[in-house]
């Protein structure tokens, strides 16, 4: 990495300091397009995306567009996703593109170039990746992210109920999720003790109780990883659940919510008010942890 590129963990730390830890999702579900009185079409997608960027840009630490809802419209949807990422960049708001990529190393390099290279029109500040081809296969993404000051969030304990059958499974004396947490700790070994590392993890807001039960709390703290915690709102978790479940690891958590806030749209002020209510709750969470 050249000297003038600021590492992702530092940029994220500054954004959280300025706006609090909440991550706002842009998930243009067909039902939301309809609820916003927009056609379920490329035209409707574009308007939805423009409103969401206007509402969240400059207001929140991190915005997470869900790639699937753009990809489903083909090339025209990808073009709108590029515009969302460019719009957030212009507004100085960090983007985390939720694409959950993972493949053999040589193919992973191409995915990394698509999302993490300075020359790509689809570049984001960070992406989500899946470690289930082995964490080592993700090395091209870790390497390119480090060189360009970007971040990578590894799926560790996902928010969906089906995730436990794989992630809680025990292999060689440890859970799969626990082994991923320790591997990410090694990647973040040089991270500052009081800040975020550049490699994050996805640990669902819905799995707080499992974290404590599986004895993973302290290992999460050791990882220095920013912990994206989707599941707040539509999946039933609350910011309070994050505080109770993550315990001392809660200071690393970025509670993420999409549908619950987006359902307040299309009015920009109403979207901001819904976001701000979650931000308010999350600031209480950080205070409680620091006590
Ligand atoms: O474990 C995971 C990983 C990713 N997600 C994604 O987050 C949002 C959640 O949306 P809500 O509307 O707030 O439920 C969505 O894009 C998921 O694909 C997740 O939910 N859980």
TrEMBL record:
Domain Orotidine 5'-phosphate decarboxylase, chain residue ranges per copy: 21-274
InterPro entries: Aldolase_TIM, OMPdecase_type-2, OMPdeCOase_dom, RibuloseP-bd_barrel
Gene Ontology terms describing biological process: 'de novo' pyrimidine nucleobase biosynthetic process; 'de novo' UMP biosynthetic process
Source domain of life: Bacteria
Gene3D superfamilies: Aldolase class I (3.20.20.70)
Catalytic reaction equation(s): orotidine 5'-phosphate + H(+) = UMP + CO2
Active site: 100
Listed GO MF terms: orotidine-5'-phosphate decarboxylase activity
This enzyme's EC code(s): 4.1.1.23
SUPFAM superfamilies (UniProt xref): Ribulose-phoshate binding barrel (SSF51366)
Enzyme class per UniProt: lyase
UniProt KW keywords: Decarboxylase, Lyase, Pyrimidine biosynthesis
Pathway: Pyrimidine metabolism; UMP biosynthesis via de novo pathway; UMP from orotate: step 2/2
Family as reported in the entry's similarity comment: Belongs to the OMP decarboxylase family. Type 2 subfamily.
Stated name of the protein: Orotidine 5'-phosphate decarboxylase
Organism: Flexivirga oryzae
């Amino acid at each position: 990495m050249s000297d003038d590129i600021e590492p992702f963990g530092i940029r994220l730390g500054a954004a959280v300091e300025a706006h609090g830890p909440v991550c706002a999702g842009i998930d243009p579900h067909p039902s939301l397009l309809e609820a916003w009185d927009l056609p379920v079409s490329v035209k409707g997608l574009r308007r939805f995306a423009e409103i969401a960027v206007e509402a969240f840009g400059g207001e929140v630490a991190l915005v997470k567009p869900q790639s699937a809802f753009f990809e489903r419209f083909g090339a025209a949807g990808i073009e709108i996703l590029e515009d969302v990422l460019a719009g957030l960049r212009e507004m100085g708001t960090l983007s985390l593109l939720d694409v959950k990529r993972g493949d053999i190393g040589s193919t992973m390099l191409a995915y990394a170039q698509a999302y993490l290279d300075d020359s790509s029109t689809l570049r984001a500040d960070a992406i989500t990746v899946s470690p289930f081809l082995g964490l080592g296969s993700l090395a091209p993404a870790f390497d390119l992210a480090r060189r360009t000051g970007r971040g990578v969030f590894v799926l560790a304990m996902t928010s969906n109920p089906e995730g436990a059958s794989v992630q809680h499974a025990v292999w060689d004396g440890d859970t799969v999720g626990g082994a991923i947490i320790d591997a990410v700790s090694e990647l973040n070994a040089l991270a500052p003790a009081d800040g975020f590392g550049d490699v994050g993890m996805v640990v669902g807001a819905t799995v707080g109780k499992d974290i404590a039960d599986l004895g993973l709390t302290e290992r999460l703290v050791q990882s220095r990883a920013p912990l994206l915690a989707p599941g707040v709102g539509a999946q039933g978790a609350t910011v309070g659940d994050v505080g109770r479940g993550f315990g001392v690891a809660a200071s690393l958590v970025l509670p993420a919510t999409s549908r619950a806030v987006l359902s307040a749209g299309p009015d920009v002020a109403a979207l901001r008010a819904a976001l701000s209510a979650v931000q308010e709750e999350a600031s209480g969470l950080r205070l409680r942890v620091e006590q």
